[in-house]
Design goal:
Keywords: Coiled coil
Shape: rod-shaped
Pfam family, one: TEX13
Largest sheet: none
Helix content: over 70%
InterPro entries: TEX13A-D_N
Distance between the termini: 168 Å
Number of strands: 0
Family: Belongs to the TEX13 family.
Protein name: Testis-expressed protein 13 A-D N-terminal domain-containing protein
Radius of gyration: 55 Å
Amino acid sequence: MALKPEDPYTGFRHSSVVDFINEKMARHVKGPEFYLENLSLSWEEIEDKIKAILEDSEVPSDAQEACTWSSLALAVRLAHLQGHLQGRKVQWLHDFIKLHKSATHALELDLKQLTEEQEVERKEAAFQLQLAHAKLAQAQKERELLRWKLVQVRFATLKRVVYRGFQHQLQAIQSHKENLPK
């Protein structure tokens, strides 16, 4: 018996189907041999082998038929395995998509938090800049006030020097007038 009913990878669900195919393969010794020898081959390789058997006129027709039933069983097995692998790939892709969505969501949250932090930092920097501008404007006003006071002090000092010089000249003129002969 080439096909085993307990083998989950045969692709057949019903034991009566497995028994029927085993019966057809067992009609010639080449049937079960063909099945067992070609379990690990691709469908293309199996099809090439069955084609060669069917085209060989020296192979008895019951052997050809048994090998054809074996190739049918192998095709169902391969289709079942491909379906199983496809299901696993789909599950893997589904899991990958979920992981990708989770990572995307986490990145979105991180980006939102960073954006909010940058906005707070930007507002703080803008406030500090405004504060610095206000302090600079205040310092410029104080500088202009001190310049004005300095100009006033210089003017007042110059005024006193000129006044004193004028007084000295008046006194010198008066003193000179007094010393003149009359």
